[in-house]
Structure formats: structure tokens, C-alpha cells
Amino acid sequence: MYGYIKGIIKEIESNHIIIDNNDIGYLIYVANPYYYKIDETYTIYTYNCIREDEYSLYGFKNKEELNLFLKLISVKGLGPKMALPMFATGSTTGIIDAIDRENVLYLKKFPKIGDKVARQIILDLKGKLNGNQISLLDNNSNDELTEALVALGYKQADIKKIVKNVDANLTIENQIKEALKLLLK
After folding, report:
1. Distance CA 78, CA 121 (A)
2. pLDDT tens digits for the chain (185 residues)?
3. Among residues 84, 100, 77, which one has the least CA distance to residue 47?
4. How does strand 16-21 pair with strand 41-51?
5. How far is CA 154 from CA 17, 44, 139, in A?
6. Paired strand residues for 5
């Protein structure tokens, strides 16, 4: 898994960039590819989306954007491809403020976000996002296990249901194995 990739931008397309790191070109989907400039060095924080039919990297300018993105994709009905465009025109503080103020109209201005999804975002995240310190994890959960499961592409809501049933005395490898068994039931 990749936490971030630091390298030189080699290509810019309408929905992604290619960043060169040690002669390997990583295709990373970003909200606004034109924010970047060719032949300049950037650090891009990444989310690895691993699914049955897809292995994709989604990139963000900073950790705050990444953490908010992870919170957004934990919402039922909102996947990475729908959440990413929210960062093209919306700032993290604007998105958080809209959620906390229940501003459905602001959320509906983003592509593919309709009334139902906007209300679901508010329902799931209102009061859980505290400004500049967007917490990816709940304080009472096993942080390392939760991070690993999020990185594997599981939804925060599903993880929250099973993490309390995993023996915290096991090694992290065995905790992940036990959690995966519970998630697959």
C-alpha cells in the first residue's frame, strides 16, 4: 500500500496524472489534474482502491483532503469516483461546513451527488468532522487494524461493526485475518 508518492509529474490528462518515482510512472486519479505542472516535483497522498475488477490510486494534495475523502467514501452510496470530484471545486472546510450546517444545496452542486446521497452524507457525517482535525478513526477502535482494513478498500461502517469482535491481544497480522473472516461472513 502507498501512503504517498513523491515524484515528478510527467503527464496530465483530464481526470488523472502520471507521476514518475524512480522510473516508475504511477497513474493517479485526482480531482483537479490542472493544479499540477509537468516536470515539477510533488508529494501526493494516496488512497489505494482495490476491488475485484479494479486497482486504482486516488491522489490528494494533503492529508486533510485524504482523510475527508476516506470519511466520504464510508457513506452508503458514495464511492471513490463520486467523492473525488467534490475536491475539484469544493474546499475541505467548505464541504465540512456544508455537512455540519446540513446544506443539501451545496452538496448537490457536485457531479453525481443528488438529493438522496447529499442527505445520506449529512446523516452519516454530521458532527463527526471537526474542522482541521479530520479524524480517520474513532478513538475507541483498534487504529492499526482499522487503517489496514480501510487500505484494503472496506467501508468504515462495515469495519466499525466487526472491529470490536477481534481479539486485541493477537498480532496485527492475525487481527487482520480474523477481521477479514468476519467481514466475509
Report:
1. 8
2. 789 999 999 999 999 999 999 999 999 999 999 999 999 999 999 999 988 888 999 999 999 999 999 999 999 989 999 999 999 876 888 899 899 999 999 999 988 899 999 999 999 998 887 644 444 434 333 667 887 787 777 877 788 888 888 887 788 888 888 888 888 87
3. 84
4. unpaired
5. 25, 22, 19
6. 44
Integer Cα distance of 89 and 86 in angstroms: 6
Query: Which cell numbers hold the place of 72?
Result: 466520504
Nearest to 49 by CA among 14, 80, 24, 13: 80
